């Protein structure tokens, strides 16, 4: 149960979707869902609806709205295909920390003005590259974000990256949960350790869990790395986090 919406933003108009539980009128606690690098597509609509069915209004924006509207990956194609991936990497390159910050402000303004969303604090969840978005949004809007989660997240704590979200976690006031893919080349153990240390040093209430045997992208049903058991576990962990915070 969803509706399309257009959100005015500093860099253009964000095409997005709001998901609600079936037969629910709202207002309900808000959850922002950022897709993985593949952008908007059916498996993420399904994921957003499953979260909404637990009693939330879920806002899922097109993170690539600066470059294209709607589904970015053509039907029948995969974001891993060699004729698709370069385009996605180009679009992702436009999502600088500054661009993310402008988008966060627009999304919060939407939440404050659309009838589906209740007042108060929100949750945010990201996948793959947007695990970093969730962490950054929690840091930049500490007074609004009660819960931030990331699954099979990428490049959260690269030592030589001054823009790494690991550098801003000291501002976070909400709860944080990360479900990491086992032996993920995009988030090796040294980065997980670096992030954990930064969160602990900052006194953030956080949980890190390694999904043993699960590969990067384990929640994406259209990916060869999809792992049904790990995906179910991710939904359970996210549901518990949101229940306890929102």
Q: Biggest β-sheet, characterized?
A: 8 strands, mixed
Low-pLDDT windows of residues? none
Q: Count the beta strands.
A: 8
User: Which structural class should the secondary elements be placed in?
Assistant: alpha/beta
Quaternary structure of the protein: single chain
CATH architecture: 3-Layer(aba) Sandwich
Proportion in β-strands: 15-25%
How many separate structural domains?
Answer: 1
Strand line-up of the largest beta sheet: 1-2-4-3-5-6-7-8
Name of the level-1 CATH class: Alpha Beta
Query: How big is the Rg?
Result: 17 Å
SS summary, helix count: 6
The name of the CATH superfamily reads Alpha/Beta hydrolase fold, catalytic domain
The ordered H/E elements are EEEHEHHEHEEHEH
Mean pLDDT: 96
According to CATH, the fold-level topology is Rossmann fold
Distance between the termini: 21 Å
Estimate percent helicity: 25-40%
Overall geometric form: globular
